[in-house]
């Protein structure tokens, strides 16, 4: 009954998830087992790229959940993504130990440069993996809880909410740029060595992270499906369509919004935590408001309010970005802007909606 | 209110503290032993100096069907906003039964406690099916975790079936609510109110934009609801009011101008003046 509810009734989602699963199986084989001079060989670069896209897809999923279903446009999801990334980065930094440039057994290189003599309190505990993972969820979750509680309780909605979330991520960016914050300032956290004892430069570790990202995406998708197909999911759609009616039907609208917002923030944070070891760096640039807007473009392009549309959007826009920034870097921003205008005007339901339209035409003939 | 006044208010000899008040709940019987189910007393609301309600007094008996009429700007919608917790009055008190102070409760608590409201413009969940609309309105535990994990019981499903029959949308139950006709949307919204098991129904202009046949149907529906529920209807359509009303209240400039049967009210010279001018 649960499989019926989560999977069988969702043909597009099953197709997309099937493709993700297939990639998670085939790419590692082609990367590890096929000799590098074979035409079937998948390069390390491609594995890293696809791994990044998988993280972005999970991030897009979290944006779609809150924007597509609850109608809350958050232009600050990059903040939660980055905070998750920083928590993971802190763990990876602690794993460096005395192999840093200055060889200090406990302090990070940037702390040595700042002449600090001991580890700040908020870096304590991050040498333990479980603690770091807990923080990946807890810190962004708590921020979302406090921020959301204040915003939703005051009934801040629509464009005002979008603006304050932009301000949130911008403020965090400025804070993380400061060296005295103790997060590496401008350079952020980088030069990671190993995760859970595995060498981060090794091929197998990279493939392992890739597979972990794919499974995180699949599990995240299932969790989102579980929410949107439950009665709670219908309440959330109801809030999007007629908030006052929902309130007068006896639902405490604020708490529904808040829980969904917190869950979405945690999902984004997990994406960030998987992203950082794969790209090998996290810096305050990730908090940039522009990043958060780009996430919304992924979802809009893929098709909002479908969940799998977000995955399609994240992959296609990021693929296009990689393609254009390699061949003609100066045109990319124009293309991104053009894409957004085009999608808004012509494809209100995104790429997924386009397929829908074709298949319905096919049915008629 | 300055601190001194606040202190004085707190230590008033007849002060009833909030924690002694019962929580709004379907299982709590609304205390109506003295007749009225809804007490609106001396309520005033002003928006930027404009008095929307001016010392309004209104008592609704348990199970009664009351029509409220009045020219535009008489304060009909504001009165509903006050009762349902959307607007807080400047002065006055609003009690539901004898023990529930509505001014201390929020909108969703008042709705759970048993006051349902239908908006002027039909407000339903357009993207959901007719069935799902009623499902969401069903009186049940409405906390986040509960709705995430539990579906409705058989009893509640039977009730949905019953209401679908009552509002005449049995055949359309799978249809997306946004695709219904205007009249059907109005009925669906009334059906959603009924799913809440309310003691009091506030209905704002139920027949606006309906065809003659639909109006008749709605009149039948509302009169059949009176008795089991108290129904308050705000309406402009005089013919409709005449067809259902037993007692009519006329509002004018935020207070009650006249009250009585339709004939009494219509022959009242003050009412004639307000409606027809000098």
Which class best fits the helix and strand makeup of chain A? mainly alpha
Helix content of chain A: over 70%
Count of alpha and pi helical runs of chain B:
11
- What best-fitting shape of chain B do the alpha-carbon axes yield? globular
Rg over CA atoms of chain A: 21 Å
Tell me the β content of chain A.
under 5%
**Main sheet attributes: strand count, strand direction, barrel closure of chain B:** 6 strands, mixed
Provide the low-confidence segments of chain A as ranges. Answer: none
- Looking at the chains present, what oligomeric state does this protein adopt? heterodimer
How many angstroms separate the termini of chain B?
A: 42 Å
User: Number of DSSP strands of chain B?
Assistant: 10
Strand order of the largest sheet of chain A: 1-4
Protein name (chain B): Urea ABC transporter ATP-binding protein UrtD
GO molecular function (chain B): ATP binding; ATP hydrolysis activity
Domain ABC transporter (chain B): 38-278
InterPro entries (chain B): ABC_AA/LPS_Transport (IPR051120), ABC_transporter-like_ATP-bd (IPR003439), ABC_transptr_urea_ATP-bd_UrtD (IPR017781), BCA_ABC_TP_C (IPR032823), P-loop_NTPase (IPR027417)
Quick synopsis:
Chain A has 365 residues and is mainly alpha-helical. Chain A has 15 helices and four strands. In chain A, strand 2 and strand 3 form a beta hairpin.
Describe this entry's structure for a reader.
The complex is a heterodimer of chains A (365) and B (278). Chain A is an all-alpha fold. Chain A has one domain. In chain A, 71% of the residues lie in helices and 2% in strands. Chain A contains 15 helices and 4 strands. Chain A has helices at residues 2-8, 11-32, 44-69, 77-96, 109-113, 129-153, 158-177, 203-229, 231-241, 243-248, 253-279, 289-302, 308-327, 332-346, 350-364, and strands spanning 189-190, 194-195, 198-199, 281-282. In chain A, the strands form 2 sheets. In chain A, strands 1-4 form a two-stranded antiparallel ribbon. Chain A has a two-stranded antiparallel ribbon with strand order 2-3. In chain A, helix 2 (11-32) runs antiparallel to helix 8 and helix 4 packs across helix 11 (253-279). Chain B is α/β, with parallel strands linked by helices. Chain B has a domain at 123-197. Chain B is built from 11 helices and 10 strands. Chain B has helices spanning 3-10, 76-83, 107-113, 130-137, 144-149, 154-166, 182-195, 212-225, 238-244, 262-267, 269-276; strands at residues 36-47, 50-61, 65-69, 91-96, 100-101, 115-118, 200-204, 230-234, 247-252, 255-260. A 6-stranded mixed β-sheet of chain B has the order 6-7-8-3-9-10, with helices on both faces. In chain B, strand 7 (200-204), helix 8 and strand 8 form a beta-alpha-beta unit. Chain B is globular, with a radius of gyration of 20 Å. The chains are: A mainly alpha (365), B alpha/beta (278). The A-B interface holds A 227, 230-232, 234-235, 237-238, 240-242, 244-253, 255-256, 259 and B 84, 86, 106-108, 111-112, 116-117, 119, 123-128, 132, 135-137, 139, 142-144, 147-152, 189, 192, 196. Chain A: One of its GO terms (cellular component) is plasma membrane. Chain A: It comes from Pseudomonas abyssi.
